[in-house]
Amino acid sequence: xxxxxxxxxxxxxxxxxKGRVTTYGTIAELAGSKGSARMVGxxxxxxxxxxxxxxxxxxxxxxxxxxxxxxxxxxxxxxELLSNEGVKIxxxxxxxxxxxxxxxxxTIY
DNA sequence: TGATTGACCAACT
DNA sequence: CAGTTGGCCAATC
Length: 109
Known about the structure:
Elements: H1 5-14, E1 22-23, H2 24-31, H3 37-47, E2 59-60, H4 77-84, E3 89-90, E4 93-94, H5 97-100, H6 104-108
Parallel strand pairs: 1-2
Antiparallel strand pairs: 3-4
Helix pairs in contact: 1-2, 1-3, 2-3
The chain binds a DNA duplex through helix 2, helix 3 and strand 2.
């Protein structure tokens, strides 16, 4: 069975290593639709009602900004989680984002 | 079924 | 610098 966009998103996000972050656009691209970064957010949004536990806090926007922080149930939750894993956060942005950036294609291959 | 929305991205005004 | 527009695709109303 072909994996849907959702399925791919879940798969990729669940594979994000601790202390790393990735972007919606990258996930969307790997999932098969580059322009569908919004769908990634949609998928993650559905996670709130699902029994799975994906590190969605490790997914940030293209600029390394924590755009989804408000959807974690709080404004500090996302930054707290990331900083707890070793990812330094400056307000709503990941410090040294390029250095923390995780490329799914390298791990999933 | 049609219209709206959505945790984005890029470009333009 | 802030606001708008177009694009992308699927879910929800």
